[in-house]
Structures are given as structure tokens and as C-alpha cells.
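C-alpha cells for chain A. Residues wanted.
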């Protein structure tokens, strides 16, 4: 990790996750929340008890995930 920040040490208990759906969202959706100035948490609404994965903005961009699709600013 380039910035030496442990993304999994960040508290996400108050994070507001937004959904991005390609359809009616009846089978679940990917969720995304900003959890700091740069980091993001990516979850799965079908598995709300699973710990979300954490990414930097650079990593989200490399994976082709656009926060704007979730109604979130980058």
C-alpha cells in the first residue's frame, strides 16, 4: 500500500453506503461508502454481515469503479 495506511483499521460503523444498480435491485447490489479523505468501503447488500472490502481512490479507479455511479463524489 503506497500511503502506508491500514484501511482495515479505519472505523466504518457510521459509514453511509450507497447502492449502484444496473436493474431493479431485487437480487442485491454493490454498495460503496467513503470512509475517509481517500479510502472507500465496497460492500454487498446481499451479504450485509460480511465485512466490506476497502480500497483507495486510485485502486477503485484502476478497477473501473466510478463513485459517481453510486451518487458519490470522487
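Reply:
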Amino acid at each position: 500500500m503506497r500511503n502506508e495506511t491500514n484501511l482495515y483499521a479505519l472505523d466504518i460503523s457510521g459509514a453511509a453506503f450507497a447502492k449502484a444498480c444496473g436493474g431493479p435491485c431485487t437480487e442485491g447490489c454493490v454498495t460503496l461508502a467513503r470512509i475517509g479523505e481517500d479510502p472507500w468501503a465496497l460492500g454487498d447488500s446481499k451479504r450485509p454481515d460480511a465485512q466490506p472490502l476497502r480500497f483507495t481512490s486510485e485502486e477503485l479507479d484502476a478497477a473501473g469503479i466510478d463513485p459517481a455511479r453510486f451518487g458519490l463524489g470522487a
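The radius of gyration is 12 Å. Residues 51 and 68 are 22 Å apart (CA to CA).
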